[in-house]
Design brief:
Blueprint lengths: L2 E4 L7 E5 L4 H13 L1 E7 L5 H12 L3 E5 L2 E7 L11 E2 L4 H11 L5 E5 L10 H10 L2 E4 H4 L1 E7 L3 E2 L2 E3 L5 H12 L1 E2 L1 E5 L7 H8 L4 E4 L2 E5 L8 E3 L4 H13 L4 E8 L6 H8 L3 E10 L2 E9 L7 E2 L11 H8 L6 E3 L12 H11 L4 E4 L2 E4 L9 E3 L4 H10 L7 E4 L11 H7 L4
Parallel strand pairs: 2-17, 3-16, 6-7, 10-12, 11-13, 20-21, 24-25
Antiparallel strand pairs: 1-25, 3-5, 4-5, 7-9, 8-9, 13-15, 14-15, 17-19, 18-19, 21-23, 22-23
The structure holds shikimate-3-phosphate and phosphoenolpyruvate (PEP).
Shikimate-3-phosphate binds next to α3 and α6.
Length: 430
Amino acid sequence: MSEKVLHPIDNGLRGNLQVPGDKSISHRAIIFGSIAKGKTTVTHFLDGEDCMRTIAAFQAMGVEINKNGQTVEIYGNGINALKEPVVPINLGNSGTTARLLLGILAGLPHHFTLYGDESLSKRPMDRVAIPLRQMGATIDGRDNGTYLPLAVRGAKLTSITFETPVKSAQVKSGVLLAGLLAKGTTEVVEKTTTRDHTENMLKAFGGHITSDTGTISIQGEQELQGTSIHVPGDISSAAFFLVAAAITEGSSVTVEDVGLNPTRTGIIDVLKQMNIDITVVEERTIGGEPVGSITVNASTPKPIVIDGEIIPRIIDEIPIIALLATQANGKTIIRDAEELRYKETDRIASVVQTLQALGANIEATNDGMVIYGNDTLTGAEVDSYGDHRIGMMIAIASLITKNSITLKNPDCIAVSYPSFFNDLDKILDK
Ligand SMILES: O=C(O)C1=C[C@@H](OP(=O)(O)O)[C@@H](O)[C@H](O)C1
Ligand SMILES: C=C(OP(=O)(O)O)C(=O)O
């Protein structure tokens, strides 16, 4: 088992950096490029393990995809040209690949078998399998088709109106993608807005989709055209450095060219509410997504309550927000975040256990956590539990702990951020 010893820093963090491409947008660029007709070129693609799973899945269905560093060329022949793969599709650790792909497979006249790693095999797939079955697909698997491995027999789909019971962009996207293959108009109704990259990307490929007060409607049987997509920096990756700059004395860090889609910028709102010195300069719109630079200077965080509609807009940032809250001068409460229990780990349990091991005063609740603040963190031996965001949270914590941290299982960070430690090194004030 690999491990990494991480040392606290003497000086702050300083400088500018760019983070890799957005994971959600990178997945979708491959998916839409593969089901569109003609060539798609993706630049600043996230070279992480999860997005490579999406590429491999479409290659297994006969799509020609060539990757050269962060540039990917896809030669799509339309959704109906996707072939039956000869071998099972390995989804690795990627929930996004699993849920979005299921939507497409449901409407193809083929048989598919899907499996993932140990973590993904514990995550619920019925949240998307249930509406897809209603549309006409046959999906079976472990525990009555709740968990991977799954067998999918696609069919001619009929459109549905689906009121999603979970606050999940993956579920919304899975149903909308199936809607592309269904007769008529498929509707997804969501009570809380989740990231809308599927909707934006569909439009970039010439598709038609509307969104009106929580109802997203997609017409079936549309033909999409290949295009060029430039992927903005991932705000969920940037968040680790923004918090790092906030909690380390004397720091000033600017992350450039970060995606600022409003369904993703909850971290900026949280940092502002916590009195962190943060400036956002919006520079331009690329491929329908706003992009800008974010600067954070070291600050003392103020404790706050985080709940309600902001939760889906910070869902992947909650581990690093929890670390920030340990440095606040009072009690921070995070609630309405039960979805954290269905991530790569149960992130309520893994965040709380890890920060407790580092000396923080933090408690789990059913749907979130209470962080009491004013903590001096100590060193310890802690495990990422194979969860990339827990691994990165631990690495940022190590900048301010009294002694070194031994991080077990750091390799999982490559799922979303293979160059994480190199980028962190760039802003260390040596
Ligand atoms: O649609 C997406 O790209 C994602 C949606 C979120 O998951 P849920 O939809 O399960 O909340 C998020 O946690 C994940 O990292 C990426
Ligand atoms: C939850 C995440 O990803 P996924 O659901 O795609 O595995 C994440 O990146 O934090």
